[in-house]
Amino acid sequence: MAAENPRAALERTRRSHAAAIAGAGGVARAIETGAVPPRIDSTLSEALVLGLLLQDVRTFLVVLGHGSTEVGEVLRIYEEAGLLRTCCVRHEIAASHAATALRWVTGEKAVVVTSIGPGALQAMAGSIAPASDGFGVWYLFGDETTEDEGPNMQQIPKHEQGLYLRLCSTMGRAYTLHTPGALPTALRRGLNTVDHPHRAGPFYLLLPMNTQGSAIPNLNLAQLPTGAPPALGAAADEGGYAAAKNAIPRARRVVVKIGGGGRGATDELLELLDRADGVAVTSPLVSGVIPYDNPRNMTVGGSKGSICGNFAMEEADLLIAVGTRAVCQSDSSRTGYPKVKAVINVNADVDAAMHYGRTIALVGDAAATLKKLNAALGPAQAAESPWLAACQARRREWDDFKRQRYQKPCLHDAVWNRSVLTQPAAIKITTDWVRAHDAVGFFDAGDVQANGFQIVEDDRIGRTVTETGASYMGFAVSALLATALARQPFYGVAFTGDGSFTMNPQILIDGIQHGARGCILLLDNRRMGAIAALQDAQYGADHATSDRVDVDYRAWAASVEGVHALDGGESPDRLRAALDEALDRDGLSLVHVPVYYGPDPLGGLGAFGRWNVGNWVQDTQALRHEIGL
Questions:
Q1: Which of 270, 297, 361, 528 could cysteine-pair with 290, CB 3.0–4.6 Å?
Q2: Residues 6+ apart with CB under 8 A from 216
Q3: pTM value surpassing 0.90
Q4: What are the tens digits of pLDDT across the range 86-120?
């Protein structure tokens, strides 16, 4: 009898493992019940997939190439057994955005798989979003061989080893599977990174092409790690709580700035605001962490803040920073608190906690730390104080300012040569619609994003996803793929401009292929509006931010079978009708809305802060050093 072909034997072994695992209900259960023995003959690529399944990673977004065919073969067999889902997409950046959005909205983990070289670099570029915003995503990149037989195609053309590892290690945590025996360590480091309880991020696992298929005889499955690292508790009391307890009552004007680290501390934050007689200013990342209608919520602040948010920052004499990295736009390039005399900084990261001078640092989990701080502070302050009254007056001014723009929803636009909707009006109409239909809104970078986080009125966190960490153009439309990947599907609306959409239009195809449920709201002002407005503000003229090319976005969308291409019209009623039609048709829709760009102040929401860019740099830097915080 002829010997079995080695390739056929390997496939048979893999199928046997996959069938046993599927029958048992998962890898862990298969090991517990003996459906698979504690030691198996495997390969590095199969063992890697088994290790990821043990960590409940079941979604693989792939752009396969010659550097990842071996991993792709394992995914094929395990997907046929029903153990995972492989989604081929048309761009590595889109894959990264979709994986980030999936983790952000649902908490589910995903893997981005690419080939060697350009594909890996594109995925790494996209990974700046989860790195900046604090979400864990796995990245599997093909890499050059370990035997250095000569230059590998698509590697960095330089006679050095480990160059991709060096690049990835600059962005975040990375590991090269140079030998199969290192897999357990690689999986543990990845698990600690993507499931970090306070500062999760991307993990880059580089797979040399010659080690992927390496045999691992008698693999001990117990070596494959499980179990996320534990969260920190409350900050240790080394006098910090007592110092904070003394500082807060002495202050007359307390502002609480909330960043991404405050996501899970809503109850504690609300209690702190009352006990400290403070007002909240939020970063766009955590819209809804304090309900919009709360009387102590002054909404966003910073270089693109609100009238009330920036007033609170400008006038405060004590800052309580909770889970914030103090990004340049969030604190006006470190000039946002010119009258602050002391800072209480609650953060799980030491560097972030010590960012400002004159700081009482409480390093620990935000919710647990605030609970102890609240207990130390004692009863709530008076419901009405001069500080709260002053801030609320500015909040009413801000609400009136926005209402004036909503009451004038259309303006005549020189480029469109007709009256069209303004961005504030279109975004307000759609964000209200999103909230009413319990959908999730994703905002792309640019003036759509900036107007958006000034407008949204979220009553809870999770309604709006605003990727302001990297402010990545094309994030929102790519994020719609998460609606198809989630174990509990949801409806999404991507707020995007014409500039951002053309960065990542692959969702038109990938969304149909994989069953996305959502709507692309394409607000078309025929330019990069945010940069044009910045140029106008700084230099009195815009340059190289628009073109004369007329694009029929509805025809583009309609050319992809299955996409519903709709006209958002030039009135509030027509836009609402288009959104209703998109929802009724289910699947993926694109609603095209021409929007105004021009000098009329009713066409936008303006900016009320400072920023260390362009010809503002010298004044902003001088003020920062004058403040000395």
A1: 297
A2: 41, 42, 43, 44, 47, 180, 181, 183
A3: yes
A4: 999 999 999 999 999 999 999 999 999 999 999 99
